[in-house]
């Protein structure tokens, strides 16, 4: 299989994730979509590293995983707090910070 | 040109500061002491100017006996900054001592009269405090040996007149009149201030001696500028056209104040300034011409106003304006006129004080009624006032041998002696003015003292009058209905005696001063002219006398032969104009006040719409824009995400475009 297929898969996953972030209201699902986008990026990094015979992309993929883990920790904590306060996990309900 | 030769004061003159100190002390005690001095305040107030007068007499005779008749008393250094030095000193010479005697003499009589006139006023003590302040300021004005000291007195006089004209400040008209007098005077003061600035910048000194000593080296331009600026100052203080408008309104003050302003202090200050500055005027024909023109215009202006006023005080005020016009005219005629300017001023001081105090006496007996159309036939009920007023009347219209005849004729002749077209015009003005003076003064006489009684006596008037009516300023003119009942009565002795003394002065002052060139010789060292012998009767004098008699006859035909209507008829256009002060106020309002108001309105409009408008528009634009922009902050996370996606997409697209 040529690496191009991996890149194509990566694009498809990224688009699915992006659309999910934009259209879903449930914060948990939005989170999962963000994870999907991050992992699509990881897949692209690894695919390109393979294509160019360069390890930089693989190293970056690890970094992304670490950052994603940290982000999930913080994000889920915020989500818990919002849910406790508002009894809802919908992102549209957390709209106090506006004009 | 004269230079002043002064020597240090000797003898009794060394204490000349006492002249100022007495009334100033009185003013301070009465004004600072407050109600504690209510009981005896008026006595102190009378005593102080009398003390000054006594000292002035001593100084006068000391001066007569001394070889040096111009003496300088250095008091202290007023200002010492770099090379600018203003020594504070008093100059006692023939001119200033003449004024001092007039101010303190007539002033004392007015003080004595006020004791009776203001008896029922609860603020009599304050009144005397202001009177003393007035006298003190006027004495400083005439005694100072430099222009800055003169200026201090000048401003003091302005302040005191403001306080006194507005003495009954609960009357709106009085408060407004006081403010008007002050503001109009400030216009004139600006001229004097500029003159003093100019003296300092040109000569580096403001003392009379220093300025007159170096005026010759300054060129005629400087002399002309100084002369015209001093004329502006004199116009303000002496109520000359175009700064005349305050004088008629100043009648809102108590009558003794009017007498003091018109006879002894205030309006004479301008004449004093012009005569004192004669070395400056001598160098500038232009300035002299300006002075004579102002004088001639004012003497006719005031006389015409005097003809139409039904208010006895305003008729007399128009007369003052006119008489001061004579003095200004004389002061502008050069050395020949100075003597007559001062002689007329002194004679005028007597008869005008007498006339005003007489008018006050009439008002005192007539419930403060000032409308002459409600008088008539008062000669019987107030004999003393009638006789003294009559003597003042004869003096002012210039019937020989009363004082006005000598002094006014001197001015008329001096005007004709000037020669040329201007001399003829000025002389004609003076002669016509004399005839008009005779007309309006006869009118005042006839309307007040003769004819049918146009007032109704009440029951009390038959029996002797015990208590005078309480004086209330608010019950002034116009408040009485036609059916108001009066009980006119002669004023108490404290008021009639000053009238009698002033009448004596009115009768004798002119003859005493003019006959035998007595005053000319006395003033010679100041004016710098040797006395010239003149005949008592000249062609101009005879013509004047004939015209004066014609004026009297005309007034009799109009106001004596036929009864005076109790309500003023509509009158011809000139009468209507004269009743409105010849539109002096209207002129000021339309030429000065209205444009000023327009300017301020324009500035306010520009400030609100232009300056503020610019800033406000900018602020509104920023506010409006941000109001719209903030709507983007919807609070919906997904819309933020969408914009981020778009942003990222645009960035990527840009990168691709650049790469390509």
What does this structure look like?
The complex is a heterodimer of chains A (99) and B (660). Chain A is mainly α. Helix content of chain A is 79%, strand content 0%. In chain A, helix 1 runs antiparallel to helix 2 (27-52) and helix 2 (27-52) packs antiparallel against helix 3. Chain A is elongated and about 50 Å long. The model of chain A has no long low-confidence stretch (mean pLDDT 91). With 660 residues, chain B is mainly alpha-helical. Helices cover 70% and strands 4% of the residues of chain B. Chain B starts with 6 loop residues before the first strand and ends with a helix. The A-B interface holds A 18, 21-23, 25, 30, 91-92, 94-99 and B 630-631, 633-638, 641-642, 645.
Number of strands of chain B: 5
**What is the residue-mean pLDDT of chain A, rounded to a whole number?**
91
Determine the N-to-C terminus distance of chain A: 52 Å
Please describe the biggest sheet of chain A, giving its number of strands, its sense, and whether it closes into a barrel. Answer: none
Structural class of chain B: mainly alpha
Spatial shape of chain B = globular
Number of helices of chain B: 24
**Total of helices of chain A:** 3
Low-pLDDT regions of chain B: 459-483
**Radius of gyration of CA atoms of chain B, rounded to a whole number:** 31 Å
Into which percentage range does the β-strand content of chain A fall?
under 5%
Give the CA-based shape of chain A.
elongated
**Order of strands, widest sheet of chain B:** 1-2-3
**Which percent band covers the strand fraction of chain B?**
under 5%
The string of secondary-structure elements of chain B, in order, is EHHEEHHHHHHHHHHHHHHHHEEHHHHHH
Helix-strand pattern of chain A: HHH
- Percent helix among the residues of chain A? over 70%
Going by helix content, strand content and strand pairing, the class of chain A is: mainly alpha
Quick one: biggest sheet of chain B? 3 strands, mixed
